[in-house]
Amino acid sequence: QVQLVESGGGLVQTGGSLRLSCAASGSLFNILTMGWYRQAPGKQRTLVATITPGGSINYGDSLKGRFTISRDSAKSTVYLQMNGLKPEDTAVYYCNARRTIIEVLFDYWGQGTQVTVSS
User: Fold this and answer.
1) Rounded to 5 degrees, what are φ and ψ at 31?
2) What DSSP line would sit under 43-82, residue for residue?
3) First-last CA distance in the chain
């Protein structure tokens, strides 16, 4: 079992920056693909970014260049640096950990952290 605890959300003005953190419990961090997803009110949850144990990164549409995902194995933590924030980035941001066992995916989710960008 993996437990995820997010932090770092809040209220920021347009053009500002925030860094989200997600700490994972247990000893599986080095085999987990970590990611961030977001969900705006009335919309589906969408991909922000993922990073594999080997460091391969995938960003959601139009986010590369403003958002940067990274991971620190020593701290079992994944980060999301968000720069140049826009009102449309307002959403609840969820940390995700994914483990694959014999082609079966196991997903773990954090509780979410609110990011609000004011215009």
Assistant:
1) -115, 5
2) S--EEEEEE-TT--EEE-TTTBTTEEEEEEGGGTEEEEEE
3) 40
Instruction: Return left, alpha or beta for 116; rule: phi > 0 is left, psi -120 to 50 is alpha, else beta.
Output: beta
CB 24 within 8 A of CB 31: no
**Residue 105 is encoded by which pair of tokens?**
């995916």
CA distance 10 to 19: 10
pLDDT recorded at residue 91 = 98
To 5 degrees, how large is the angle CA 27–CA 67–CA 73? 20
Whole-number Å distance between alpha carbons of 30 and 118: 36
pLDDT digits (tens, 9 = 90+) for 40-72: 999 999 999 999 999 999 999 888 889 999 999
From CA 11, how far away is CA 90, in angstroms rounded?
Answer: 9
Distance CA 36, CA 48 (A): 5
Separation of alpha carbons 55 and 30, rounded Å: 11
- For the chain, the average pLDDT equals 95
